[in-house]
Amino acid sequence: xxxxxxxxxxxxxxxxxxxxxxxxxxxxxxxxxxxxxxxxxxxxxxxxxxxxxxxxxxxxxxxxxxxxxxxxxxxxxxxxxxxxxxxxxxxxxxxxxxxxxxxxxxxxxxxxxxxxxxxxxxxxxxxxxxxxxxxxxxxxxxxxxxxxxxxxxxxxxxxxxxxxxxxxxxxxxxxxxxxxxxxxxxxxxxxxxxxxxxxxxxxxxxxxxxxxxxxxxxxxxxxxxxxxxxxxxxxxxxxxxxxxxxxxxxxxxxxxxxxxxxxxxxxxxxxxxxxxxxxxxxxxxxxxxxxxxxxxxxxxxxxxxxx
Length: 307
Description:
By secondary structure, this protein is an alpha/beta fold. It has twelve helices and six strands. A hairpin with a 2-residue loop joins strand 4 and strand 5. The longest helix is centred in the C-terminal third of the chain and has 18 residues, at 271-288. It comes from Nocardioides dubius.
């Protein structure tokens, strides 16, 4: 089988296709994929799967258990190969028996068929199958190399698998080295490990949060809490004293106190000092996570303080 070049220009915009899918409750596609980097595509999540391709490529694989059992076998192989690339791709498995509207909207002529999306649009020509497992591996290796050559470094976040009650969720292997370092009390090594992950994939929000919190731990190691608070009380405009107490508040779980301390400081200082405090505050936002309600409020308060 000839391999299609990985190309972004001239692709057809698929952003409106989800409107073609009726709003009724469809059965889950397929038999249920079991991979951190694969998802069964339904009418309800179709748009979000398309949006995921703005982070890194999404591989849609269309199959039909009733019409072609071999197409379902290929879909399983695609999930296997995609998972081997640990986030470079996300497999979107489309069972056309369960979600025919999606296949109709995308004008799928046959199964099995595979299509790679990037930025919500096709990045390759449709690839009909069946494609043997080893040929799939060669194809995805080539696509990954082309992504790297084009400077496309984004990765998908692993999707949470079901965890039985009482069991600990598995540790994502990408973060294992950093978490092991934290467990051993080697904060400097943890910072270095998280920094590697962020450098490799700036869009990795979990790595960015880990790096930010590891830096908080590094800055507060060996600090006497009472002395730090006394110094901040005596020097309300001292940048180092105030940011240190904000870090200590973070470690103590007083997240909003930390945010408010720095936002109040931003209102009192100017110039380079203001930029320094703002940068520190953004680091604390990253440590908590941009979707956290406290961070959303903090960002609003920061905007008010700055403008």
